[in-house]
């Protein structure tokens, strides 16, 4: 039974390992695509904002890859522990059979005279003694074959363990290298942010950034469907919804026509922007299903949750996402975490929208007073 359980555990680890390998390959493919875009931007003079957007995605994907590699390393460690247990068990089995073989050989070759030999075997004739000697030889050969099999199995287990330990060391080296790459990118991004801050001093460039955000809003609307559905639970939650962040939500940019304080630039905000901090968890405010997970320039990762009655909630400016399309969520389900910076400013923010089909709703009217 113990051996069967170990075999099942090993197959389970192999299955998990295979699934992780697929996920790691998917992340690597997307990461290479982003790196290609960054390379193009360094050759062809692109906007600083585009470089920052690509860097944000590079950093996010690199963090995902590191997380997947750490999971893979953890599974390797588990496999090594299982192999160690098997080696201990086989070594004990080898010792037992070795001791038995030694006793058999003693009986065959180390008895000083016939009378003691007869006493040991419980026989009284030379014929019977001869028969027992033949029997002991067969037993010795059988035990020796079993010992050889166990020894070969031990060698195989040791080789597998060595291979896994080498793979684990290689993974840890890759993780360390990836973490160094992220540090370098963070440094490079800070430099680009300084350039972008300088560019923003000019009103015309700031307007270009706003136009890019409006383009992304148009892309967002293409993802939403108009549905002639009425009733449902969600409509009854108006004025009662919780803040999608921890505690209360502080509005940094209000819904609708928003006037920039510095330049007086008019911007039509399709939702509200809440103050947040980097890595802060973002939660679903009501039950529903994940309609889309996408990347939009200016909003980074965006998660769209579909609710009953044709309603949607939209969560943008995410640096990482924990859900996938089609997944069912409950109130409080963690969707992702806030990115390090907001595209139009220095501090992180959560961009949050409520839609009835493609129609924009003012989220401030839907959240409870205790949430604001």
Structural overview:
- The chain has 372 residues and is α+β, with helices and mostly antiparallel strands.
- It folds into two domains: 2-199, Helix Hairpins (Orthogonal Bundle), CATH 1.10.287; 227-371, Glucose Permease (Domain IIA).
- It is 57% helix and 17% strand.
- The protein is built from six helices and twelve strands.
- The chain has helices spanning 2-43, 48-109, 114-121, 126-199, 203-223, 363-366; strands at 251-253, 256-259, 266-269, 272-275, 281-283, 288-296, 300-306, 311-321, 328-329, 334-338, 349-356, 359-361.
- The strands form two sheets. Strands 1, 4, 5, 6, 7, 8, 9, 10, 11 and 12 form a ten-stranded antiparallel β-sheet that branches.
- β6 (288-296) and β7 (300-306) form a beta hairpin.
- The longest helix is centred in the middle third of the chain and has 74 residues, at 126-199.
- The radius of gyration is 34 Å and the shape is elongated.
- Mean pLDDT is 79; it is low at 1-5, 41-45 and 110-121.
Outline the fold blueprint:
Elements: H1 2-43, H2 48-109, H3 114-121, H4 126-199, H5 203-223, E1 251-253, E2 256-259, E3 266-269, E4 272-275, E5 281-283, E6 288-296, E7 300-306, E8 311-321, E9 328-329, E10 334-338, E11 349-356, E12 359-361, H6 363-366
Antiparallel strand pairs: 1-4, 2-3, 4-11, 5-10, 6-7, 6-9, 7-8, 8-10, 8-11, 11-12
Main beta sheet strand tally, sense and closure: 10 strands, antiparallel
- How many β-strands, per DSSP? 12
SSE run: HHHHHEEEEEEEEEEEEH
What's the rounded overall pLDDT mean? 79
CATH topology of the largest domain: Helix Hairpins
Number of domains: 2
> Unreliable segments (pLDDT under 50, ≥5 consecutive)?
1-5, 41-45, 110-121
Overall form: elongated
* Architecture (CATH level 2) name of the largest domain: Orthogonal Bundle
Helix run count: 6
Oligomer: single chain
Structural class: alpha+beta
User: Distance between termini?
Assistant: 58 Å
């Amino acid at each position: 039974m113990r051996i069967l359980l170990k075999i099942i555990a090993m197959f389970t680890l192999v299955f998990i390992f295979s699934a992780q390998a697929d996920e790691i390959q998917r992340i690597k493919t997307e990461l290479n695509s982003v790196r290609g875009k960054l390379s193009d931007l360094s050759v062809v003079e692109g906007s600083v904002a585009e470089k920052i957007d690509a860097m944000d995605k590079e950093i996010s994907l690199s963090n995902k890859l590191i997380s997947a590699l750490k999971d893979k390393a953890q599974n390797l460690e588990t496999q090594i522990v299982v192999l160690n247990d098997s080696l201990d068990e086989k070594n004990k089995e080898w010792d037992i059979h070795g001791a038995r073989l030694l006793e058999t050989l003693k009986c065959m070759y180390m008895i000083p005279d016939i009378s003691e030999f007869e006493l040991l075997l419980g026989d009284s004739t030379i014929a019977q003694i001869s028969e027992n000697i033949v029997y002991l030889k067969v037993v010795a050969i059988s035990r020796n074959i079993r010992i050889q099999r166990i020894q070969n199995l031990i060698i195989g287990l040791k080789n597998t363990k060595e291979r896994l330990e080498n793979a684990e060391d290689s993974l840890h080296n890759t993780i360390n290298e990836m973490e160094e790459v992220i540090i370098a990118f963070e440094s490079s991004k800070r430099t680009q942010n300084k350039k972008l801050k300088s560019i923003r001093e000019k009103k015309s460039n700031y307007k270009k950034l706003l136009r890019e955000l409006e383009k992304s809003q148009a892309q967002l609307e293409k993802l939403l469907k108009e549905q002639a559905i009425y009733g449902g639970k969600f409509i009854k939650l108006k004025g009662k919804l919780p803040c999608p962040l921890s505690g209360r939500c502080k509005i940094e940019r209000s819904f609708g026509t928003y006037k920039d304080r510095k330049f007086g630039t008019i911007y039509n905000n399709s939702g509200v922007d809440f103050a947040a901090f980097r890595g802060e968890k973002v939660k679903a405010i009501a039950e529903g299903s994940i309609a889309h997970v996408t990347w939009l320039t200016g909003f980074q990762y965006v998660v769209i949750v579909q609710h009953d009655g044709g309603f949607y909630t939209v969560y943008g400016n995410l640096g990482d996402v924990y859900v996938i399309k089609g997944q069912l969520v409950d109130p409080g389900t963690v969707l992702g975490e806030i990115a390090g910076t907001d595209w139009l400013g220095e501090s992180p923010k959560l961009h949050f929208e409520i839609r009835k089909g493609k129609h924009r709703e003012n989220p401030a009217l839907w959240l409870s007073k205790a949430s604001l």
